[in-house]
Amino acid sequence: MFVKGRKNNIVDFTIRAMYNQIMGETGKNATVINNSSKAYWLSFAISRFAKSKKLTPDFVFPKLREYGVLDFLNTHYETEHLENIIYVIEDMNNILERNGGSLE
Predict the structure, then answer these.
(1) Residue 5 gets which letter from DSSP?
(2) Deepest in the core among 2, 60, 72, 81, taking most CB within 10 A?
(3) Domain layout of the chain by residue ranges
(4) Helix (H, G, I), strand (E, B) or coil at 70
(5) CA distances from 49 to 4, 28, 63, 64, 92 (A)
(6) Which residues contact 99 (CB under 8 A, 6 or more apart)?
(7) How many other C-beta atoms can be found within 10 angstroms of the C-beta atom of residue 22?
(8) What pLDDT was estimated at residue 24?
(9) How crowded is residue 35: how many other Cβ atoms within 10 Å of its Cβ?
């Protein structure tokens, strides 16, 4: 999936870190992910969303979870993962704003 190179290794590391965070969530606020492919795609979407906002995935992840964006992506995975990432990011932003969220 990734071509060897420093920049791609950093992106790959970020996605793996997010994947581990998503798969490792527990407690009442956890988004239930029962598929590692889905978790990997969610990690990718979160990383790309963060990059589009010039923020870190670690900063945006709690906000996306708090305002229902992760639940939306999890529920609508079958449709969303087939979309171009640009449209997924737009959907994520719309859900965040609709639910009163902010990245400030």
Answers:
(1) S
(2) 60
(3) 6-98
(4) helix
(5) 23, 25, 12, 10, 8
(6) 67, 68, 69
(7) 22
(8) 58
(9) 11
